[in-house]
Amino acid sequence: MYAFKYQRAKSLAAASAAVAQNADAKLLAGGQSLIAAMKLRLAHPAELVDLGSIKELYGINVVKASSVTVGAMTRHAEVAASVDVKKAIPALAALAEGIGDRQVRNMGTLGGSIANNDPAADYPAGLVGLGATVNTNRRKIAADEFFKGMYETALEPGEIVTSVAFPVPKRAAYMKFKNPASRFAIVGVFVADTGSGVRVAVTGAGPAVFRVPEMETALAVRFAPEAVANIKVPEDGLNSDLHAKADYRAHLVTVMAKRAVEAALT
Prior knowledge:
alpha+beta, Enolase-like, domain 1, four-stranded antiparallel β-sheet, 11 helices, 34% helix
């Protein structure tokens, strides 16, 4: 570690102003990614602005059984344990339950996860798969437009995620082939049958979450595992590393999609 300034923001406006005025400042949510990166000197912010005291960033709210809004500072464990989330979108609760280990789930936050946009994170698949809306202190951003690339989002300087609104689907499920050590997704697929059609979102396989239109079209005709069994995702552009090569990740997309559809039907 090294020397840096620290402040615990008392309001959303104060936090926004602090990071807007200092390009070397970073927002601190759960810290499960940022602190680890700082220890490894992969990140070296001059200042940390802690969001922990801003009460408006916490909580889970279900609106007339049509949507679930989760505050940006809500912990993964809270989403996983929420009776309201389990009732409205059980796939989202299950996704949160599968994130990392107990420490990560009890410290990590929804807002911190999506703002960091790790290519192997679980929440991006949930947001895009459900067609969620990211609310910030300035605007609303559709999940399809929020995740831009590896560790890159649509957030602008001084813009802070305040909550995420998830539409309640007819049925949905998330399945991932996880790294046995970190539990990050080597490949994770979120399938949702929504009021506006079927959505299939993939995390872990590429630089950022992406959809598979061919699978969505097939599932709209017949929502069954067999509908996607023979659909192959091109390996071009997929991640290839010591955990899995691109061709294996392409294979896993189909396998996980089939399993997600099967789970959604149960």
